[in-house]
Amino acid sequence: MRMYDVIEKKRDGEELSYEEIKFFISGYCSGSIPDYQASALLMAIFLKGMNQRETADLTEIMANSGDTIDLGAISGIKVDKHSTGGVGDKTTLIIAPIVAACGVPVAKMSGRGLGHTGGTIDKLEAIPGFKTGLSTEEFIRSVQKIGLAVAGQTGNLAPADKKLYALRDVTATVNNISLIASSIMSKKIASGADRIVLDVKTGSGAFMKTLEDSIKLAQAMVDIGERVGRKTVAVITEMDIPLGNAIGNSLEVIEAIDTLKGQGPEDLETVSFELAAKMLELGGKGDHENCRRLVSEAVKSGAALEKLKAMIDAQEGNHQVVSDYSLFGSANTQFDFVSPIEGYIESIKTDTLGIASVVLGAGRETKESSIDYSAGIMLYKKTGMSVKKGDVIATLYTNQPGKVPEAIEVMQQAFRFSAKAPEIKPLILALVDSHGVHRY
Ligand code: URA
Predict the structure, then answer these.
(1) Per-residue pLDDT band at 19 (split at 50, 70, 90)
(2) Are the CB atoms for 347 and 209 separated by under 8 Å?
(3) Domains of the chain
């Protein structure tokens, strides 16, 4: 087989066989296929697309390109959750302890921030001492003991995706439904859960900007999951507005803890509790109504907060942070971003706000950058709210005062104001499962 012929076939819009996809992935991972040929094929896939069979084959081949985790030693139905990424998205920190407190084991591998989006592993590392680099044995032992572990992906989980993702990132081939679906699902399948709940974000802070594209991405991922016998459900949720009020690692962990205490922002609570209930449903805890009730009880009784403390202990962090937020440390510089006019916040470019938080130090500008855990943004006014001239819209936190003017400039580009209150979309827009699409 020649790589030239595989590229030519896809360039001409033809369907690739399993063997051709395998030839590409194996050759690219071993180094026998160079970057320039892999890039040409990625661009051909980007322009001509892949059908469901090709997408499922690509996923399976990438999932099996490295280690696969066997969670068989953990009893019960293991349900995983994955978010396609957003700004202020700290739902895993809330959902995982709730679901574990309700008796469904959570063995979750998470990622770091990517571009303007934050990552669960960076957030957890804001907790003093917290260890995210667990061996597979430590990871499984923790779930056996306390029903919960959230750790970084092992180095050799779906290495083909890692290599391909880095290439897509620099060849303008990220935003393709087949490529995103196979990238996400290859990692989910390799990490071994029986069932998967996907939080597919839609809007200005998400990879998919429109509801229709988000539904297509969700359908592609549900189809892949079902093909490999992993029941998969996708919830399409709003990411035109940041979720909750906190953006930045320590700030988000504190907001997640507040939510587990029943004192979190309403939008964050709504999305987190719905996703937690979906996980419980897939974990065999009864119908949706019953699962919603279990979620509320786990929060009201304090059981979910206790579970978070147990996870922090098990992963060597200081669980005192749950009651003493000063242990997170605070930024040496705070700056208020105020409204320039009287009116309403018409819209927020949520990805731009994510970039402002990266400028302040909350994310990485290059792969080598280190994170300032106390940097970030607290938003007090969001889309739809009325403001007076001079009202504080947000407070910026950083340990690099020199970065404030640049962050403010970015923030100014993110907000649009109007004289009339804009229409606000619901937070939960649709559900996609093997039976089809249910719009709310
Ligand atoms: N997240 C992933 O893991 N892969 C993609 O392609 C996009 C988002």
Answers:
(1) very high
(2) no
(3) 3-49 (1.20.970.10), 79-156+187-228+243-323 (3.40.1030.10), 327-418 (3.90.1170.30)
